[in-house]
Amino acid sequence: MEETISLKELMQTLRKRMTLIVLITVVAMVLSGAVSFFVLTPIYQSTTQLLVNQSKDDQPAYNPSEIQTNLQLINTYNQIMTSPRILDKVIADLDLDMTATELKDKISVESATDSQVVNVTVQDPDPNQAVTIANKVADVFEKDIVDLMNVDNVNILTKAEVGPEVSPVKPQPLLNIAIAAVVGLMLGVGIAFLLEYLDNTVKTAEDIEKLLELPMLGAVANIEDQKIQRKVNSSRSTRVRSEQVG
């Protein structure tokens, strides 16, 4: 026997388990909000920019080959900027209580395609320290690259600063709550259908017809309403008394 489920039955299942679905969704949203606001540490971000410009030589001001060479060097610069050679000096100068590996995890270096501008981004629980680290990494790299690669074509374009209204980049409570609502809703719907699938009890005449594949010829009503039962008993008592008087 091939069992099919109609859209009507699906909607009935959702309607029957709506309380469970809403409860799971609300719990997921509350937990996500509580974790975002009270458990996760706010992380602040600061960015400084470096310009890989023309080398100081007798080359023309806009030599295409020189620009292409600088673009090819950017990937090398990105690796050097997060190397222990640079980060150890940053740690020593700022007296940071962390290793070069731990500091590297806070730093991301990237540049847009065919761009000579390199963005150095630092994330830290302290917004002031994020600014300090970003600027120090840029300063140390600008000075050391002269000795490391015998070039002088890197300049600081924009220093990192603490804005008047500093807000963390993560966590994002509203986004987390929205994601939790979607996940909770999906989980609630899934549990609702699972419970319905595991529920093999017979509750209605339609269930009997589906189970036995036989038509229903009749049914015995189960009177549970005590008021109706009392009325029936009262009517019988009245009839009995009338018969006795007669």
Can you offer a commentary on this structure?
This protein is α+β, with helices and mostly antiparallel strands. The protein has 9 helices and 4 strands; from the N terminus they run H-H-E-H-H-H-E-E-H-E-H-H-H. The chain has helices spanning 7-16, 18-39, 64-81, 84-94, 100-106, 127-149, 173-198, 205-212, 226-245; strands at residues 44-52, 107-111, 117-124, 154-158. It has a 4-stranded antiparallel beta sheet. The mean pLDDT is 81. Keywords: Cell membrane, Membrane, Transmembrane, Transmembrane helix. This is Capsular polysaccharide biosynthesis protein. Its main location: membrane. Pfam families: GNVR (PF13807), Wzz (PF02706).
